[in-house]
Amino acid sequence: MNTMEEARRRVEAYQGNDVDKAGNPYREHLLRVSARGTTEEERLTGLLHDLPEDHGDDITEAELRRRFGDRITDALVALTFQKDCESREEYLRRVAANRLALAVKWNDLSDNSDPDRLSKIADRRIREKLAEKYTRDKEFLRQLALNEAAKL
Fold first, then answer.
1. Closest by alpha carbon to 120, among 20, 15, 47, 33?
2. Can you tell me the distance from the alpha carbon of 92 to that of 82, in angstroms, rounded to the nearest whole number?
3. In angstroms, what CA-CA distances link 23 with 4, 19, 101, 122?
4. Predicted TM-score (pTM) of this structure
5. If I label 90, which of 62, 102, 135, 137 is the partner at 20 to 30 A Cα–Cα?
6. How far is CA 14 from CA 47, 58, 129, 134, 145, in A?
């Protein structure tokens, strides 16, 4: 079995019954983030990007390393927001420090902020709050990238 097929099996096993804030199957978001990837690693990481955060009690970092390797797992670790011990800025800085994680996070934010996807969230306040959060996160990551480029 190839790694992408293994990732699909993991998503189905752990996230197959999850739904997003609009009540749609969450795996649709994962597939869209994966499809935005421009490399096989981006597609694979995109498919798995929320697995450690949403189901970290079910799958260990060691298992991810064994099944998907260090580069993918390092990116997945970087993409896992530790809500109880880090700020959003700290999290985004960690994401930005890993090129693969940064590419996948950008794809994730792009899908999350898609007006068609947001329009399916019934509660206007939640919809607006999420749109602001995704816009703020993208701008923060863009500024980090610009600052890094200015150092070159």
1. 20
2. 11
3. 26, 5, 26, 10
4. 0.93
5. 62
6. 12, 8, 27, 25, 33
